[in-house]
Amino acid sequence: MNSLSETAYLVAMYRAMESARPDALFQDPFASMLAGGQGKLLAEVFGNQKQAANIIAVRTYTFDRIIEQLLNSTEIDTVVNLGAGLDTRPYRLALPRSLCWVEVDLPEIISYKSQKLQQQQPLCSLERIELDLTNSELRNNLFTKINSKTNQVLVITEGLLSYLSEEQVNLLSEELRSQSHFRWWLFELIAASEIKLIKPSQTQKLFQQYFSNKLQFAPNNGLDFFSERGWKIAQFYSMWQESRRLKRGVFLAALLELLMRCFSKKYWQAINQKIGIVLLEKN
Question: What are phi and psi of 127, to 5 degrees?
Fold first, then answer.
């Protein structure tokens, strides 16, 4: 099992942890089942990882709200979730029956997920496609096929871009923009270097050592990376601010924010542009 697959199980476990809280930001009744023994084992290996679980909770909640708002306010007829992992939104969000939801991921993830959820009924039309997303030729062929059958597409790359190189993200950006009906792109932008602002515990060091060395995409120019490539920044939610607002704050986040605002407003603004949820619209 590769690290991307292991991350999918761990993220499902964190969603299960959030769902079990009395003040849960969302309910994912399938997360625990999908995380299974692998997710529980990974959570035990890396410790309880409250901070990581909080980050995933905030990310999931924010993605949920943006998706629902877009579907209610635009004419999106298709959602394409690249690197879908063990996401369960087609089963738990209030989605239009007419919506087409396409999940794309590695064969082992698609197979496992299909087997686990075979008795469950999605709330919209759902298609799963096995594909190595690092293969640009196959990926672009898929985009062209989807584009020919749709009117307005939202693309989601939750948890994916950080594992790609800057060159790969640049190519993906070009491919998405080249499709006439691909209008929206939703993802999180995280600069791995900024995680070092938080002093990790021993288990957190293990977690970062295992996963962070696989992270690649962290552009120095933050959001400008995408605006320079013809995308419009439609929405941006700072993970720092959203974590505090939703009471899932990262340890010492409030103190760090205060210090950075006092001593370097420019640096604080730069950090806010590097850690957040981004919705792009094609110009």
Answer: -130, 135
Q: How many domains, in total, are found in the chain?
A: 1
pLDDT band at 262 (very low <50, low <70, confident <90, very high): low
List, for residues 199-248, the tens digit of each pLDDT value. Answer: 444 444 444 444 444 678 888 788 889 999 999 999 999 888 898 899 98
In one-letter notation, the amino acid at residue 80 is V
* Alpha-carbon span 269 to 277, nearest angstrom: 15
Write the pLDDT tens digit of every residue in 70-84: 999 999 999 999 999
Q: Residue 13 pLDDT more than 90? A: yes
User: Which residues are within 8 A (CB) of 248 and not within 5 positions of it... i.e. 6 or more apart?
Assistant: 25, 54, 55, 57, 58
CATH number at residue 189: 3.40.50.150
φ/ψ bin of 252: left (φ > 0), alpha (ψ from -120 to 50), beta (otherwise): left
8 Å CB contact between 192 and 184: no
Alpha carbon distance 54, 244 (integer Å)? 10
Q: Can you tell me the distance from the alpha carbon of 84 to that of 105, in angstroms, rounded to the nearest whole number?
A: 6
Residue-range definition of the domain harbouring residue 221: 3-282
DSSP states of the chain: --HHHHHHHHHHHHHHHHHTSTT-S---TTHHHHHHHHHHHHHHHT---HHHHHHHHHHHHHHHHHHHHHHHHS---EEEEET-TT--HHHHS---TT-EEEEEE-HHHHHHHHHHTTTS--SSEEEEEE--TT-HHHHHHHHHHHHTT-SSEEEE-TTTGGGS-HHHHHHHHHHHHHSTTEEEEEEEEE-GGGGGGSPP-HHHHHHHHHHGGG-----TTTTHHHHTTTEEEEEEEEHHHHHHHTT-PPTTHHHHHHHHHHH-HHHHHHHHTTEEEEEEEE-
